[in-house]
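Blackboard transcription, Thursday session:
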Amino acid sequence: MDAPADAAWLGAMRRARWRRRLLPLLGGGILLFTWWAVVAGLHVRPFIAPSPWVVAQTLAAKWAMLLQNLLPTAIESVLGFLLGNLAALLIAVAFVHKKTLEATFFPVAVLINAIPVVAKAPILLLLLGNGLAPKIAIAALICFFPTLVNMVRGLEAVSPQAMELMHVLSATRWEVFWKLRLFASLPFLFSALRISASTAVVGAIVGEWIGSQVGIGALIVQATYNFDSALLYATVFVGSCFSVGFFMLITLAERLCVRWQPEVTRH
Amino acid sequence: MTAALACDGVSVRFNSEQRAVTALHDVSVTVPPGGFLTLLGPSGCGKSTLLRVVADIIQPSAGTVRVLGQTPAAARRNRQIGFVFQDAALLPWRTALQNVRLPLEVGRRPALPPGDRTPEDLLALVGLKGWENALPHQLSGGMRQRVSIARALLGGPRLLLMDEPFGALDEITRDRLNEELLRIWQQTGTTVLFVTHSIYEAAFLGRQVMVMAAAPGRVQAIIDVDLPEPRSLALRETAAFVTLASRLRRTLETG
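(Written on the board underneath:)
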């Protein structure tokens, strides 16, 4: 290819990249504008829905208070995330190595998972009191099931030929686990972790709705009762930002850990 | 001299819920040290099953198998068997070199005796010098199979079992790897059992060709190949080769 054509191609690539970045921003801008236009145009009263400008002012004015309330929610969701996923991981390992265990306890896990979170929350609240513990437990429970299912599938997602290879090499079960199963399960594990990163935050907030004075969930309830729609929106915004950040952190960790998949889905 | 492989009356039956299937019936064959036996036959004739019996992956229902005078289990534990699978069976998270090194990290973790080929040497032997740090998905199908051959050769196994290793490759790559396999076989002096359903591959590679028939899997004939050495691809145009190939085809058809 000659140089001008090369330059033209590079230019086209650069424009395509900017389009990919700018178009979503444009979409967000249009949404904000529509929001503002509807609130201003239809004279929606402030306690029904605030205008984006008022939400931004509230965010700026109550920044310190919002962050103060984000802290317990963040602690609960991160601890719940760690606890729930760690438990799921260990139990999955046990299930894969002892089929009787899986046959006995998997239906129980399905049953517990079938109870809605909002129904589980009061039970845990009675059991664990009013502090951080019940919220951590709810977040952990919500993370537990998807990770258990995915991890069992992942640990078994080993090709029969790879298992035969390990047999020919006289590998022990321990070695098969550390050299084969664990790595084979990582893509499955991370897809479960990405789900639990956002659901852990949901769990913590639901826990705070039911019994808490602090936290994003408590703030949401207070703002709603006080018809303080601007504070409600600002709180939701802060909670969402944390959730998205948590999700992106897991995605980043996955990119660092799982480097062997062919790059088909990445840009 | 102890045979590299001696099978005597080997049968394998699988019991499924509906019925018992005889995968192999009364197979007897002897391969001398440094020999090259190709197993040729249609799908379902039990060629892969026989390979797995020799590798101690499947237990025979009847008959005895001796690998260098030992049971398959002992030969496996002593790392005298190398296995090359149809789809290479590389671990996708390991680089080419790390895949070749795997046998040193599991089982009895035998230390390579000084003077033995290192993983680096073996990658060079299969023509992959410079690709040590490539991950499997960055390699072509032929290159992946070369890596798996290097892995099977680590530790200098006395018996190399190959289960249709080039079956999924295009014909040009397959021809080149056939020639290279003969070179590697001569350089290492190992005994090879090679499963294929290509008549030309079986005739070109084998010093003995075992023709098998299906339902139940059994030996149709064991044919000694007497073609001029060393073999190169040009051999396949000679009258002697064509005669052998048509003889194999006729034997297959009577099965």
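Lecturer's comment: The radius of gyration of chain A is 24 Å.
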